[in-house]
Design a protein that fits this description.
The chain is an alpha/beta fold. It is 34% helix and 16% strand. β5 (110-114), α4 (146-165) and β6 (170-175) form a beta-alpha-beta unit.
Length: 318
Amino acid sequence: MPRFLLAGGAGFIGHHLTRALLDAGHEVHVVDNLVTGTMANMKEFEGRRGFDFTELDISQSVPSGDYDRIVHLACPANPTDYQALPMQTLEVNSIGNLKLMDLAKKVEAEYYFFSSSEVYGQHATVPSNGLSEDSASIIHLGHGRSPYSTGKMFAEELVKAYYKRNDGKYLIIRPFNVYGPGMDPKTSYGRVIPNFIGWAKNGKPLVINGDGLQERSFCHINDFIGCMMQIFDKGMPPFDTVNIGNPDPVRIIDLAARINALFKNDSPHRFVPRYEFEPLFRKPDIGRIRSWVGWEPTRGLDEGIRSISSVPDPGGRW
């Protein structure tokens, strides 16, 4: 069975992927600097056969070991975090990325880089079938979100340039708004679904950024991890970049109404000024992954929301 190195494996997506890989019989070495990932996410794996954890910042050093697949998930992903940690966000996508690719070259491992749908930036409109892997990037520099979006964009270019010069196999993954159990609700501009649930459960107004007409497509973590496992099972595809997400969009105002209804919260919404440079539309075209492995998301939004109903009150605005 292939041996995996997961950089950033103590984060939200990483710990779910760790569980799935261990359940499938793989050896998994997780490295994480625990700046945004947590040891709480690693507790369930202690003592499991094939699991190892090292607290490590890949921007400083990478582990020694013989790996078959190296997966780069390491990066602050919550807007609250990456706006507070711009240098770390940029470094892990550049220095850390390069160090991991050098390791992959040395041990002849496949390389999987986790990018983001943020690389598409601010599209005024989106094609009916969504943003494809070939859609343009429209990103504004010099604001709170830009270290993350530009860091991911630079990282993608670095990966492609590296593998033009060096032999090896790689895949760039662009997740679209993945949610589910284990997300960390935070105040300020955090993740909308756990924040909405936390407020609704406590009978508080749901704080909506702008008019709530922004559209997002939310993909449940179980669907996302299922897709990743299909990719690992099938092997490297004949393309270098792939969207993974749910192509069924919802307006934020409608998401708020659905969550209030599910938790019987009658408090009125509270509207606050919209964040500048926030994308208004985000919907993936998943034709590429659908054609490659036959994957389709199956978890409906209401069912997915119920799966994370235990989140605490996040406090302030998202």
